[in-house]
Amino acid sequence: MSAEGWLPPEGDLHLRIWVSGVVFDYAAAAAAVRNLIHDWRRKHWYTIELIRESIEDCQLLPRLPCERLFLGP
């Protein structure tokens, strides 16, 4: 199943990004996550996890850096 199959159309998601064995947890808008995954498909130099069971905890997470850059087309 693709990520887009269960991504909500709006709201925040818990996004986990792995870069060289280091984990970064962020909250990000669903539209930004969708565009980030689209960009990731072109070149896989990091790993993305979408954490479904912790939607309530998104308020405690830092926002995805430069999130607004991923909100546009």
Features:
73 residues; alpha+beta; 3 strands
Explain the overall architecture.
The protein is α+β, with helices and mostly antiparallel strands and 73 residues long. It has one domain. The chain has 1 helix and 3 strands; from the N terminus they run E-E-H-E. A 3-stranded antiparallel beta sheet has the order 2-1-3. A hairpin with a 2-residue loop joins strand 1 and strand 2.
The termini sit apart by 23 Å
Number of individual domains: 1
- Write down the secondary-structure element order: EEHE
- Strand proportion: 25-35%
Radius of gyration: 11 Å
Strand order of the largest sheet: 2-1-3
**Mean pLDDT reading:** 82
Shape: globular
Largest β sheet strand count, sense and barrel closure: 3 strands, antiparallel
Please, how many helices? 1
Helix content estimate? 10-25%
Number of strand elements: 3
Helix/strand structural class: alpha+beta
Ranges with pLDDT <50 over ≥5 residues? Answer: none
